[in-house]
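Incident review: delayed structure delivery

Summary: a single-chain prediction request sat in the queue longer than the usual turnaround. Root cause was a stuck worker, restarted by the on-call engineer. No data loss occurred. The affected request and its eventual output are reproduced below so the record is complete for anyone auditing the incident later.

Affected input:
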Amino acid sequence: MPTGLLEVIIVEGRRLKDKDAIGQSDPFVELYLDKKYKQRTATISNTNDPVWNERFTFNIHSGDDTIHFDVYDSDVGGKDSIGNGKVKLKHVFDDGKFDEWVKLPAHLGLSVHGEIHVIMHFTPS
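Output delivered after worker restart:
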């Protein structure tokens, strides 16, 4: 696997599954290559179609092959999982870029809990 710099832009989400009994979700995204080093977006209040437009960078090392996106609903008592998506970095390495909607499959992948728009650019070192 190549090494270099991965720029990730979390653009927006759409049709995120409602986790709140009253009102809409307060979603945010945690993104990581390794669970020990997570980055996260701001929390957008009261929407199932949030717009983040936030930029993150990751140093890519030889063992990194997948980036994970965990979407949560922020609650007073903590956070509820809305869904989890992931992208194989091979797609980014091959083209140098990635611009797609990443689906958030539900448990067992039987339904989808929405999707997030992700743009990535890879610069080899």
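Verification: The domain at 4-124 is CATH 2.60.40.150 (Immunoglobulin-like).
Action items: add queue-age alerting; document worker restart procedure.
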